[in-house]
Amino acid sequence: MPSVPPPSSRVRTHLMSDHQELEDELGRVVEALEAAGHAQAQELWIPFEARTRAHLDTEDNHLLPALFRWRRREARAIVEEHKHIRGRLVQLAKAIAAKKAKLSEIQRLFDELRAHARNEERRMYAWADESLNLPAKEALMAALAASIAVVPRPPF
Ligand SMILES: [Fe+2]
Ligand SMILES: [Fe+2]
After folding, report:
1. Rounded to an integer, what distance in angstroms lies between the CA atom of residue 56 and that of residue 60?
2. Is the pLDDT of residue 156 over 90?
3. 38 close to 102: Cβ distance less than 8 angstroms
4. Options 1.10.3720.10, 3.30.70.1020, 1.20.120.520, 3.20.20.150; which CATH number does 7-149 get?
5. How far is the CA of 120 from the centre of ligand 2 (A)?
6. How far is CA 137 from CA 17, 23, 71, 134, 146, in A?
7. Which residues contact residue 73 at a Cβ distance below 8 angstroms, ignoring those fewer than 6 apart?
8. CB atoms closer than 10 angstroms to residue 113
9. Is 106 buried (19+), middle (13-18) or exposed (0-12) by CB count in 10 A?
10. 135 C-alpha vs ligand 2 centroid, how far in Å?
11. What is the pTM of this model?
């Protein structure tokens, strides 16, 4: 039976596990690019990109407005990272579609996403677990689930 995280660490547990799933999906894009080429990598990239955008959008809408009120500098840093990641998604989507994506570039995104998750764990998720009330946490998690539910699943 999966263990239920205590309410005090729910946001951190939930969002870090979503980050893990994003990393796993991007890892499969890397494997496909190495083993099977651009066509298969693109089939996996599309759901990965949609899911990453769903994660970022949920944080923008449900965490950052409150973080801005409490810790402006931390919020600004995360907004900048989101901007950077969205830019990289556009860049890499074009490169994959044009069959010109380099493994090293996708690996770089993997490293950037991992660093971003660590940053958020420290700067935003720990704060959210301490500061948000239960309805706000529930709303955040329901929004994440709803945005993921409409994202296409990886085909393999
Ligand atoms: Fe984020
Ligand atoms: Fe995140």
Report:
1. 6
2. no
3. no
4. 1.20.120.520
5. 6
6. 15, 23, 18, 5, 14
7. none
8. 19
9. buried
10. 19
11. 0.92
pLDDT at 118 over 90: yes
Between the CA of 78 and the centroid of ligand 1 the distance, in Å, is 7
pLDDT at 153: 85
The residue whose two tokens read 């955008």 is 53
Domain positions in the chain are 7-149
Whole-number mean pLDDT of the chain? 92
Terminal alpha carbon distance of the chain? 26
Residues 87, 115: contact at Cβ < 8 Å?
A: no
In the block, tokens 């949609």 appear at 50
- Take residue 136 and report the two structure tokens written for it: 């706000």
* Predicted pLDDT at 116: 98
Ligand nearest 78 Cα, by number? 1
